[in-house]
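The instructor's notes for this session suggest beginning with a concrete chain rather than abstract definitions. Hand out the sequence below and ask the class to guess, before any prediction is shown, which regions might be ordered.
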Amino acid sequence: MKAYGAIDIGTNSIRLLVAYVEKGKITRSYKDLETTRIGENVDKNGLLSEAAMERSMQTIVRFAERIREEGIQDIQIIATSAVRDAENREDFVHRVKAAANVDIDVISGEREAYLGFLGVLKGSKDPEERILVIDIGGGSTELILGGSSGIQQAVSLNLGAVRMTEKYITTDPITQEEMERLMAGIDLVAADTLESLKKYPIDRAIGIGGTATTVGAMVKKLEVYDRDEIHNFDVSQQQLKELWTKVKVSTLEERTGMQGLHPKRADVILAGITILDRILTKLGLDNIRISEYDNLEGLIFEKAGW
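After discussion, reveal the predicted structure:
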């Protein structure tokens, strides 16, 4: 059994995974998450803010120390949508290197999709199914179609819970006019990809990332988040619609008290749920399975050679 450590710097949050792998399976793992919102206003001005970089560096230093406590020196660390879109990403990469002695790999949307798909396959109850992985992050959404034989189609779209919130939502609660603009904006970005995906049979949709896991936790009304409760949990389109209806008429203050919803995600969850609902609706899919295995697990399994 060998230990591996990985960190994912997402637009909304930074996540840590320490995993012990034996014979192609994770036998024991530890996860942590900190919402640092490094992608704050990146879509608007193209830069990582000083405050967001500082928040994120503090978390990365802490997470790197946690991994090294397990005796792991080779730390895998990736950055996704917000960092790759930022003009000052190299400044951030160099500052993290100086502070935490780790090398950030700023990955493409295509590689992000591949790692997420690999992680899902390793955690799937039905690996022989043709699956559509839906990874809604803070800055982008990856859609990956494939199965045990490999990826058939993969695309990264500039649709994310933080990005779309900053672009379209200014009222609290959201007005009908803003909701219509949000939905139209999502449809515009996703239209060509979803039309292409309609050509293929899809046995199951699997959701990964913060929006998907939060949806699962909210449907289950979890007081305390439990990975085992969420992994491979099925959410129907009807349940998603009911949740979307509840969230869209609520104020930010009301959402911060909702079961299953972390207060730091309360301001962006409506956009995330709307993205997910539009994708499922357009593809005619009536449920989605939530997976706790995602790009972090994919990164670990890739490193382990499995």
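Then share the key points. The first strand starts at residue 2 and ends at 9. The two ends are 13 Å apart (CA to CA).
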